[in-house]
Write a sequence for this structure.
């Protein structure tokens, strides 16, 4: 199944979650792994706003067995609930696959029970509406009356969606977006799927459809896409691999030192970043006597900044340079050469 998702997409049967082997494989492996990405990215990007009485409405397109809701429950439990008095959620889930929707509903119900057990003193409620629909040939407006959401998810879904309709899909989502509502697109960290997301990013910018809140720190075209046909912007998430995933990975010949994905968080109003804030968009580029990394930020547009540190300049101020991972947000004065006194701070 992993090969089918990563290499030979065409070998996946249409509506593959109808087959019990695919559905249980998805639930056993891809669901928890993708849900953890969601938890981590919601926390990193602060996509959910804390409040005493939390009230959140979610829409999930191509929800599968409930990846977004599983990841969100975890993020809410860890980051929002401890400081809140009450929590009210409403989930609208759309998928072509009725069985996957039923799985999502069942996961929702048991996650809700668990949450209530963990926080017996808080008022917690959550409801689900499931909608069976084919988003390729039905408009969202045919499936869903006009209503507003705080967060709209489309996770690992766009790559199954016709390329020429993707911009239109995101445009159409805007009327479902609350004034402060956000759209969260996530795709596998493969060259093809990530570069397609980068192209969609540029279309959204060119057509001035919506603002990009993360991972980009600017509202300009993607400098990496302009620079070459090779690289793809993706994010690494550090994790402690659970034993059972490690066993499955071993059997399937997969290596998962990090969780990886590409994503876009979209919103109505842009955030502003300073000329000293940078997103790390490459791994370490090591050569004799030096290390380099590519950084993306408003301070060097329309180009990426290639930052280089010679080994002899390694110092306390810049020691973080060695530990940076793709997707990290750092603060550093704009300079292509890092010296002993260059200060590098990690921001998230
Ligand atoms: C790779 S799964 C992703 C599931 C979940 N969002 C996740 O990230 O784990 C893609 C999902 O999109 C759904 N899907 C594919 N084509 C669809 C269509 N035309 N209309 C509605 N859902 C569709 C599939 O049934 C499947 O549940």
């Amino acid at each position: 199944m992993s090969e089918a998702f990563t290499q030979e997409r065409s070998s996946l049967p249409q509506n593959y979650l109808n087959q019990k082997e695919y559905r249980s494989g998805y639930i056993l492996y891809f669901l928890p792994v993708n849900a953890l990405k969601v938890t981590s990215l919601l926390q990193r990007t602060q996509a959910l706003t804390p409040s005493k009485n939390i009230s959140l409405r979610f829409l999930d397109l191509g929800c599968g067995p409930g990846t977004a809701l599983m990841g969100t429950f975890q993020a809410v439990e860890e980051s929002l609930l401890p400081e809140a008095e009450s929590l009210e959620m409403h989930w609208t889930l759309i998928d072509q696959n009725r069985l996957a929707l039923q799985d999502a509903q069942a996961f929702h119900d048991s996650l809700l029970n668990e949450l209530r057990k963990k926080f017996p003193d808080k008022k917690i409620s959550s409801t689900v509406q499931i909608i069976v629909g084919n988003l390729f040939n039905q408009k969202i407006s045919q499936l869903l009356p006009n209503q507003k959401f705080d967060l709209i998810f489309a996770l690992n879904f766009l790559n199954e969606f016709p390329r020429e309709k993707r911009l239109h899909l995101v445009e159409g989502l805007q009327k479902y977006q609350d004034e402060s509502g956000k759209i969260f697109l996530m795709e596998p960290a493969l060259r093809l799927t990530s570069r397609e997301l980068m192209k969609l990013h540029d279309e959204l910018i060119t057509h001035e459809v919506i603002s990009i809140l993360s991972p980009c720190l600017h509202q300009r075209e993607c400098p990496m896409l302009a620079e070459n046909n090779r690289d793809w912007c993706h994010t690494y998430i550090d994790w402690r691999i659970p034993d059972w995933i490690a066993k499955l990975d071993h059997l399937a010949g997969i290596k998962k030192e990090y969780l990886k994905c590409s994503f876009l968080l979209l919103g109505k109003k842009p955030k502003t970043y300073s000329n000293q804030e940078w997103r790390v968009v490459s791994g370490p580029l090591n050569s004799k006597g030096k290390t380099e990394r590519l950084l993306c930020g408003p301070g060097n547009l329309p180009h990426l900044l290639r930052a280089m540190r010679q080994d002899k300049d390694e110092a306390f101020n810049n020691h973080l340079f060695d530990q940076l991972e793709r997707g990290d947000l750092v603060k550093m004065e704009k300079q292509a050469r890092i010296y002993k006194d260059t200060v590098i701070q990690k921001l998230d």
Remarks:
- The longest strand covers residues 177-187.
